[in-house]
Each structure stands twice: as structure tokens, then as C-alpha cells.
User: What shape does this take?
Amino acid sequence: MRILLVSLGVAAATAGCQREERQLRVDPPVAAALDSITLMPNGISGAPPEIYFALDRPYETNAYNLSQGKRLYSWFGCKGCHADGQGGAGPAFLDGWWNYGPEIVSIFASIRDGRPHGMPAFRDKMTTEQIWQLAGYVQTIGAYSIKTAAPGRNDEKQTRPAENRGPAAKRFDEGPTPIHLDQGPVP
Amino acid sequence: MRTRATRGVLLALLPSSVLAGCTGWQSAFDAQGASAISIKQLMVLMVVICSVVWALVIAVLIRALWRGREQVERSIGPDPVIERRTARVVVAAVTATVIVLAVFTVVSFFTTRALTLAGHDDLTIKVRGQQWWWGLEYLGPTPDERFETANEIHIPVGRNVRLQLEGIDVIHSLWVPGLAGKQDLIPGRRNELTLRAERPGAYRGQCSEFCGLQHAHMALLVIAEQQETFDQWMRSQRERATDPSDAEIAAGQQVFLSRPCAACHAIRGTSATGTNGPDLTHVGGRRYIAAGLLETTRGSLAAWISDPQTLKPGNNMPMVALSADELRSVSAYLASLK
Ligand SMILES: [Cu+2]
Assistant: This one.
């Protein structure tokens, strides 16, 4: 009886030791498959490749990928046009209003192929895996609901609520109206 | 019989294998720099004094264990002679302790003072610690004399070289045991460390503050050389990258510039100006790549580029899909950048 209790206790204590998996290396065939998204003809919304679901949507739910995305966001100069999410030359992400849709494929396509009104394409500057990581992170910035995964905290001063707090988008109730006809419906 | 002999040999080998760490190009006991020499002297002094104290304490303890029981049994009530002797021993021990601690305090104060070497030459190097490599910027007297490199610091022998230390992402710590003590690299703050090598040679250093997955593979090399050799090195580092000398190398340059490589790496004299990864202008002339992971050869460059995540899992260079031909030419190109 006592042995049973002790082993149950040990099992309960070690159950918390499971750690999130970090996928550090994506096999080239997997990376190639991840690149083949299907988009609607207007370039807004669509479906990620099947392998994305087979991998259990790693770029939306995995804290390591989100952290890598956060690093890439400053490494590749997104801050220059989108600031910390508040926007500038490019639109804001913090308000949760997406001109090209909130789905991760739309964001992936915006980064990879660029968008007509001034968003450059990053196809030749980043690998497919990195674009996915970045898309996952950018989606987090404008999310409406809390995710269980969040990137690491900033060392420097925060210019907005940290990603691991409640979604910043909740603070905004009114979004901008798109000025260009091909930017899709108001969400 | 056999086993006892083996055990004897093993026991004899144990201390020697432990002591084997005391020499070599990354050892505080092989001190060749002014700061490291004062640290070593302090260390030796403390170890010697503490060993003597330890031996004395153990000797007194053994003596007490030996005769304690008969003393207690024989005496009825306190014996004034023994009492006086005990008091004298206690006073002597307390005095000795105070003196030893005072000596240690004073000596370590002066050692710490000696570490901040007075008088800098005009050679200043900015060291940026980041996961998991060292970015180096040699600041010259004029802007066109500054240049970038990575993971390999060259310094002239017998001169005080000032390092400005900055952490880019998390806290790192720079430690070149043969030349100086440790100094942290903290984000948002600038620390300084002065390096001075008394003898030419290669001194290995390492990050000594845990900084993530590849902390153990974040080494750097300090190469101390005579003034003329150093000046020559500095002049060649300031140069732009050499132009491709044959068709394969030219093809490699094309691959480098058209692929994501150029977004992260700079090669001066080309359109590659990325700053997220090490400057590769003279990568072929450095002894190691990836912060001490592999010796620089064309083969190791190809191995690294084809699969950085297997060689150094978690590092921040992604695997860029290249064809066999592209890989061959790009590694030829990088190896040619002496
Ligand atoms: Cu470290």
C-alpha cells in the first residue's frame, strides 16, 4: 500500500517535468512541403498544406517557434515599417484588423510574396521555416484570444503589453477602413 | 592481484588526469597576461596558506581525539594549569585567523586593483556577445579604419587592449583564462576589460555565463602576435573581400548574393550587408568557424552550410536548401575569402 502511494506521488511529481518539444531542424522535404500553401485567387485566405496539420500546427502553438519569430521580426527589419505592432509606413498588427485576413496562411503569404501597397516580398531573404515562424508571431500580436504559448519577454523597455499577457487587440474596438478595393472586406 | 594493481594504477592516474587541465591554451595556471598572472599569484597564495591551516587544524584535531578521553577521566574539576594553557591556545588561534583573513583582504584588494590596467593604447575592440558567437568591431582612430570580424581577436603583444563588452540578447561572459579574469556582457550596459598578452600565442576563451542551448559551443580565440605581424593582419582585415579568381568561385559568389545568406551576412565589397550573422569578409582566413566548432576548411564550410542545425543544434543560422553544385561553389567562394 505504502509503496503504491509513494510511486503514485513520484509519478505525480514528475508528470510536470514534460517539456515542450523544440523542432530545431526541419527536413528539407518537409520545408518544401510547408511552402506549398493554397491561396484564394485574390490572395486572401486559403489553406496551409496538409503537413502543417500533421505536425500539429507548430507555428501557432509552440513557444520556441514563437520566440524565434519574435527574433526574426527585428532581425529582418519589420520594425522599420510596422514598429512594435503599432504600425508606421505599414499597417498596425496590434489592433487585430487584418487587411488580408487573420488566418496564418494569409499572413504567411503577405510576408513571402509581399502585398501590392508597399509590403516587400521576403521570399529570397528567408527560409520557408523562418517565414512560418514569423507569421505565427505576427498573428500573436493581433490575436483576440489568449494562447497557451507565448514568446520570451523583452529585455528592453516594452512599448506595449507583453505577448504573454492578455491579447493586446482587446484594447481596441474600432479598426481602420481599408482604403484600397483589393484589400478584402472589413473583418 | 591483477585487480588490485589495476586499481592502484587508476588511483595514480586520477590526480594526474585532474591536474592535466592545469596547462594548455585555456588554463588559468598557464597565465601569460598581466591580469591572469596576478590572479594566478593570488590563487597560489590562498591555496598554500589554506593548505597549511587545514593541515594544522587536522593535526590538532587528531591529537585531541587521541588524548581527549584520558584527560577527561583523570581530572576532577578544572585544572588551572590546563585552563590557562587552553586559553593561550584559543587566543593564538583567533589572532592567527584574524591575521590570515586580513592578509587575504589586503592582497585581494591589490590584485583587483592590478586588474584594471592603467594606460590604454588607442586599440579598442567592441565585443558583442550573442547567441552563440562573438561579434568583433575594431574601432580605429578614423571611421574608415574600423572593421568587423568575428570569433577571433588579434592583439599585439605587450600592449593594453581595451575591450568594450556588450550583450545583444542575454547575458554572456567573456573568459580567456590565460590572459585575464571574467567579465560579463550585459544587454543595455557597457562593460570593459583590458587584455594584455606578455607572450605571443593562441589563447582560447569561452563564454562562461550560461546563455542557452549552444553555450558550450561559444568559444573565441585570442591570437597575440608581434607588432609587425599584427599591423599586417589589421591592414589585410580592413581590405574589402577579394574578387573571385575563377569561374567556380564567381558562381559561388552569385549563389551567396542571391540566397538568404546575404540578408544575414556581410561581405565587404559585395552587396551582402546583413548584420544578423558573423561578417564573412575574411572568413577563410580565420582558424575556426561557428565559434570554435570546426576548423576552417572548404569541407567544413560545406558541412556547416549544408546542415548547421545538426552540427550546432539550435543555433540561429537556418538550413538553406542548396543543390550540390551550389553548395560546392559557395564553399569554394567562402574558403577563398582569406
Ligand atoms: Cu554562454
